[in-house]
């Protein structure tokens, strides 16, 4: 993109503004979906299966209906007629859902009935009174013992097996040093703080829903398809999300059941999932067993990498965690191959969760690289620099930008990496705790999706920018408003910014760390469009001081257009509009992938994460005491929010390495820890010290704004860095996440010496 | 939530009568275990007999000669900060200070915890180690005869704990390895050298049948009350719990570490 398009910017982008909705949130005034209570609203409660596979043979509907306050019970056979079979697929983003179309149970915590009551208590008790009976079939659980197959595609439409043309087996055979190691990661559940919730109300064939959504337009389309109504008749309001992590990108069965309940009763209905009900129908990250085979020559130069991922999907749909594909981008290897296999289990369908593929792939690859560096007798950072990829290893394409070297340098300096003792189990603190330092490389693809935006200049010279974008907590309300203001050459307080509602232009999806690129570039283009129209009005008008300057000859700044070659000559927006007799002027903009650039360039954000852990040698208890991450992700719109996103990602990395694990009961097929008391995520006490360094990176190829994603990259690199730090502290390599203390102690008590 | 009957008796006699008259009735002291269990429908009492009106009568901490008597309705937070107890049995006050979380400590009671006898509760370890006496509305029960297994005690139908009498030891210490989220003991070890010189080491959170004595550790400490004396003593994983938080082998390992640390605390 030509550099001159950036001259239009004022001073909003780059400012560390605090969240504009922060006051609402800390005072409890921000209205989340479940905060809505329309007049006459009923409450719906799900009854969910306690088995993972079989049929429901009996529900005591009479008992539920007899309970005071219960209004209605929805079971298979009395649901409103759907216009589209929820077990059909018509696109890669259409996933099968369970909405009471039959008596089959395909996973634990699947909805088997909906009880609707005048109060939540009545509905909940009604659901308990259903006392279901089942024909139980044995649950298929675990990565072993079930038929293994090669998935037709992994992630979203990627081939399961990819190589760069090199001969991996020959490369390994000819290597002087080799690592062949297998790493396991568990099933994980998103567990956003805000559960999936919906308040649905019908007015004839018009539907209004309040529900958290990472993709308003897609959600609108899915509801329209299922209920056979015009998408224009559906209004989804989602001003705030209490976290999404991918699980709110697609409409899920429980949300559809809430809409059904409103349709059947003719009254507004609220349905909020209980925490345990989120362990089933709303997606999760599948377990993986990954084998990394790697070999180097005598100098530590990688000769070959084979990354294989064995994972799982549900019995009834396809989503395969593309974990091995992380190896496509990071380390130069003349021979590189990634492969995938899978089994089908009686769980809900795994879906996108916090760097799907990248996160689980990263802990395996970064651990293997650490093992390889040690085998070569090299410092882990030196080893990574030696094998630095100047072009994308899988494709040979140049990077649109890549300042990973600077990330390594700045991160290492801030952390003090040069003082690291080479040998494991040689560092201790004053309290006698074992100290370990580890590192990992972070990477995440720079994605952009299709979106549209509308920008309006009003007669008073202020602006209005509208887009159906979504704030998941990442700060879109603020960062996108900064882009909107600069696109119009106005101060942020002079621009009304609207988002979070499906009656606005399609804001694309808030996923894949692509929302700022997606919505931001659409907003940027809309601003450019209206400013160009305004400039035409002025430069074509003999009465304007800008007459004859030409569109490219003016700059928009502080509510005025000025001549590029003489900034003393200009005119305010209000004056231009007044003379033209226009109450307002509207512009449109859109964003989407530049197919040509994507063919020619590899586009990724990068980073380096350094971790310190301390391990109690008597207990094996691990604490991550210090994390430093340095990331290069193109242009930074708001450094405060970007730093916060990196922090969030790094904390999820801690979670991946040390905390999160859904423990599945292989007999019943149920998660044993479907609650936040036993499904552990980090709390403040687990995160003593975080530092995120924003490394400068200019990318004029990637998109007009030059931004990459920052949401998910922090989880990559971090989990591996912690695993490597635990090894460095203890000399014990645990190849199973989370690294639990008893796995660490194993048959080698650390206190024995 | 289902419907149940709520009672707030004004006397011990009335409380006991209400409980006996209703087959599925439960006493509630602080409610910090029972109410969450009811919310999850792990308990479905037909009648809740709230003892809160007896709090004035049944709470308080006083020294009586060589023992400290604590009213059954005394809350953990009050026990943790009692000057009387901090002077006489600091290990017991310290235990109360790490029961649950601040919310639990401001409502939960010593009597409620001992009546419930959760296998991961703290007080059972102290009671068995110090030789506490459980005083009820009808008798006194020695700790050695009180704990009968998981959630099982010597209490009879309708019997109410009114106070717990704690003999003051020469020295004592408690260390627990807390579940990172619930703060329940994954393993808690209480060591005590009683006034008569007898040594007790008790373990909570680990045993498949609730609190138990670690007699090998007692023998070693009887000879030499120091953490060094425990260097070669290991607990057996036999009879210990395995769950999603830790397996029996790790719990056995923890018993050793917590015991050594508890002795160090007692001798500090």
Describe, in plain words, how this protein is organized in 3D.
The complex is a heterodimer of chains A (753) and B (268). Chain A has 753 residues and is of the alpha+beta class. Among the domains of chain A are: 177 residues, 2-Layer Sandwich (Aldehyde Oxidoreductase, domain 4); 141 residues, Aldehyde oxidase/xanthine dehydrogenase, molybdopterin binding domain (Aldehyde Oxidoreductase, domain 4). Chain A is built from 16 helices and 27 strands. In chain A, the strands form six sheets. Chain A has a seven-stranded mixed beta sheet with strand order 3-5-1-12-9-10-11, with helices on both faces. The longest helix of chain A is centred in the last third of the chain and has 25 residues. The termini of chain A are far apart. In chain A, 58% of the residues are buried. By secondary structure, chain B is α+β, with helices and mostly antiparallel strands. Chain B has two domains: 46 residues, Uridine Diphospho-n-acetylenolpyruvylglucosamine Reductase, domain 2 (2-Layer Sandwich); 210 residues, Uridine Diphospho-n-acetylenolpyruvylglucosamine Reductase, domain 3 (2-Layer Sandwich), CATH 3.30.465. Chain B is 33% helix and 24% strand. A five-stranded antiparallel beta sheet of chain B has the order 4-5-10-6-7. Chain B has a four-stranded antiparallel beta sheet with strand order 11-12-13-14, sandwiched between helices. In chain B, strand 4 and strand 5 form a beta hairpin. Chain A: Pfam families: Ald_Xan_dh_C, MoCoBD_1, MoCoBD_2. Chain A: GO terms for molecular function: iron ion binding; oxidoreductase activity. Chain A: It comes from Lichenibacterium ramalinae.
Question: Share of helix among residues of chain B?
Answer: 25-40%
- Give the terminus-to-terminus CA distance of chain A: 62 Å
Distance between the termini of chain B: 49 Å
The class by helix and strand makeup of chain B works out as alpha+beta
Q: Strand fraction band of chain B?
A: 15-25%
Question: Can you give the mean pLDDT of chain A?
Answer: 95
CATH class of the largest domain in chain B reads: Alpha Beta
Strand order of the largest sheet of chain B: 4-5-10-6-7
How many domain units of chain B? Answer: 2
Given the structure, what is the number of helices of chain A? 16
From the helix content, strand content and strand pairing of chain A, which structural class follows? alpha+beta
- Under CATH at level 1, the class of the domain at 400-429 and 439-448 and 593-729 in chain A stands as Alpha Beta
Percent in helix of chain A: 10-25%
C-alpha geometry of chain B: globular
GO molecular function, one term (chain A): oxidoreductase activity
Organism (chain A): Lichenibacterium ramalinae
Protein name (chain A): Xanthine dehydrogenase family protein molybdopterin-binding subunit
Pfam families (chain A): Ald_Xan_dh_C, MoCoBD_1, MoCoBD_2
């Amino acid at each position: 993109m030509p550099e001159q398009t950036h001259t239009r910017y004022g001073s909003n982008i780059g400012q560390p503004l605090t969240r504009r909705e922060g006051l609402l949130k800390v005072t409890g005034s921000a209205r989340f979906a479940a905060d809505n209570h329309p007049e006459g609203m009923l409450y719906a409660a799900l009854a969910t299966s306690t088995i993972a596979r079989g049929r429901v043979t009996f529900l005591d509907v009479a008992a539920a209906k007899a309970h005071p306050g219960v209004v209605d019970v929805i079971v298979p056979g009395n649901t409103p007629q759907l216009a589209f079979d929820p077990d059909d697929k018509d696109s890669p983003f259409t996933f099968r859902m369970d909405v009471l179309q039959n008596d089959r149970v395909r996973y634990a915590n699947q909805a088997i009935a909906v009880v609707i009551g005048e109060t939540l208590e009545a509905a909940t008790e009604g659901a308990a009174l259903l006392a279901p009976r089942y024909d139980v079939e044995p649950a298929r659980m675990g990565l072993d013992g079930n038929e293994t197959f090669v998935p037709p595609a992994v992630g979203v439409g990627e081939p399961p097996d990819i190589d760069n043309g090199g001969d991996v087996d020959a490369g390994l055979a000819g290597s002087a040093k080799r690592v062949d190691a297998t790493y396991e990661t568990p099933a994980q559940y998103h567990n956003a703080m805000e559960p999936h919730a919906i308040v649905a109300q019908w007015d004839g064939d018009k539907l209004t829903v309040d529900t958290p959504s990472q993709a308003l337009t897609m959600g609108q389309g899915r509801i329209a398809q299922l209920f056979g109504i015009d998408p224009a008749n559906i209004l989804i309001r989602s001003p705030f999300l209490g976290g999404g992590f991918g699980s709110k990108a697609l409409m899920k069965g429980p949300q559809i059941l809430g809409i059904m309940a409103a349709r059947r009763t003719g009254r507004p209905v609220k349905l909020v999932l209980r925490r345990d009900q989120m362990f089933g129908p709303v997606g999760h990250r599948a377990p993986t067993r990954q084998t990394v085979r790697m070999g180097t020559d005598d100098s530590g130069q990688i000769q070959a990498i084979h990354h294989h991922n064995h994972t799982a999907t549900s019995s009834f749909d396809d989503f395969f965690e593309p974990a091995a594909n992380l190896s496509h981008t990071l380390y130069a290897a003349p021979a590189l191959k990634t492969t995938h296999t899978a089994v089908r289990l009686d769980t809900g369908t795994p879906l996108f969760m916090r760097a799907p593929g990248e996160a689980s792939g990263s802990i395996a690859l970064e651990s293997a690289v650490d093992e390889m560096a040690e085998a070569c007798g090299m410092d882990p950072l030196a080893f990574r620099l030696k094998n630095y990829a100047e072009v994308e290893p899988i494709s040979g394409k140049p990077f649109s930008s890549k300042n990973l070297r600077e990330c390594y340098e700045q991160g290492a300096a801030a952390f003090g990496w040069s003082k690291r003792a080479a040998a494991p189990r040689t560092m201790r603190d004053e309290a006698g705790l074992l100290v370990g330092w580890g590192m990992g490389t972070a990477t995440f693809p720079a994605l952009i999706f299709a979106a549209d935006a509308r920008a309006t200049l009003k007669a008073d010279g202020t602006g209005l920018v509208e887009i159906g974008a979504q704030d998941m907590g990442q700060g879109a309300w603020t960062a996108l408003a900064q882009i909107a203001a600069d696109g119009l050459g106005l101060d942020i307080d002079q621009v009304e910014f609207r988002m979070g509602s499906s009656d606005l232009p399609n804001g694309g999806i808030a996923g894949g760390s692509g929302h700022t690129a997606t919505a931001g570039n659409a907003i940027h283009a809309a601003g450019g469009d209206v400013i160009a129209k305004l400039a035409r009005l002025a430069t074509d008008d003999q009465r304007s001081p800008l007459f004859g300057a030409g569109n490219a000859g003016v700059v928009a700044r502080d509510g005025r257009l000025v001549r590029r070659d003489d900034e003393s000559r200009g005119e305010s927006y209000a004056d231009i509009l007044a003379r033209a007799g226009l109450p307002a002027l509207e512009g449109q903009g859109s964003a989407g992938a530049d197919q040509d650039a994507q063919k020619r360039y590899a586009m990724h954000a990068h980073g380096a994460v350094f971790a310190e852990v301390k391990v109690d040698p008597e207990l094996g208890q691990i604490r991550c005491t210090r994390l430093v991450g340095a990331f290069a992700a193109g242009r930074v719109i708001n450094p405060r929010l970007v730093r916060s996103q990196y922090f969030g990602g790094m904390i999820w990395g801690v979670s991946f390495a040390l905390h999160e694990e859904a423990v599945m009961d292989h007999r019943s097929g149920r998660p044993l820890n479907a609650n936040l008391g036993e499904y552990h995520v980090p709390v403040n006490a687990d995160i003593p010290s975080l530092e995120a360094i924003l490394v400068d990176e200019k990318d004029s190829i990637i998109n007009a704004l030059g931004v990459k994603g920052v949401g998910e990259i922090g989880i990559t690199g971090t989990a591996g860095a912690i695993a490597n730090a635990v090894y460095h502290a203890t000399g014990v390599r645990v190849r199973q996440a989370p690294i639990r203390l008893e796995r660490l102690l194993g048959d080698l008590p650390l206190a024995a010496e | 939530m289902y419907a149940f009957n709520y009672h707030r008796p004004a006397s011990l006699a009335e409380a006991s009568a209400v409980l006996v008259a209703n087959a599925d009735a439960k006493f509630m002291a602080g409610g910090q275990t029972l109410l969450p269990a009811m919310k999850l429908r792990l308990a479905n009492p037909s009648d809740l007999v709230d003892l809160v009106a007896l709090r004035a009568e049944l709470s308080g901490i006083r020294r009586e000669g060589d023992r400290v008597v604590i009213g059954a309705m005394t809350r953990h937070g009050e026990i943790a900060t009692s000057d009387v107890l901090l002077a006489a049995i600091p290990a017991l006050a310290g235990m109360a200070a790490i029961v649950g979380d601040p919310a639990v400590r401001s409502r939960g009671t010593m009597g409620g915890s001992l009546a419930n006898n959760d296998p991961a509760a703290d007080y059972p370890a102290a009671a068995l180690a110090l030789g506490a006496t459980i005083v009820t509305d009808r008798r006194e029960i020695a700790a050695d005869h009180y704990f009968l297994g998981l959630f099982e005690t010597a209490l009879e139908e309708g019997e109410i704990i009114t106070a717990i009498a704690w003999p003051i030891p020469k020295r004592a210490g408690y260390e627990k390895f807390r579940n990172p989220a619930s703060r329940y003991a994954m393993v808690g070890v209480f060591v005590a050298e009683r006034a008569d010189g007898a040594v007790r080491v008790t373990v909570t959170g680990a045993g498949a049948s609730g609190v138990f004595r670690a007699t090998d550790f007692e023998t070693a400490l009887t000879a030499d009350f120091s953490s060094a004396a425990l260097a070669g003593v290991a607990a057996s994983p036999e009879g210990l719990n395995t769950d999603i938080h830790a397996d029996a082998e790790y719990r056995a390992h923890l018993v050793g570490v917590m015991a050594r640390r508890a002795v160090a605390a007692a001798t500090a």
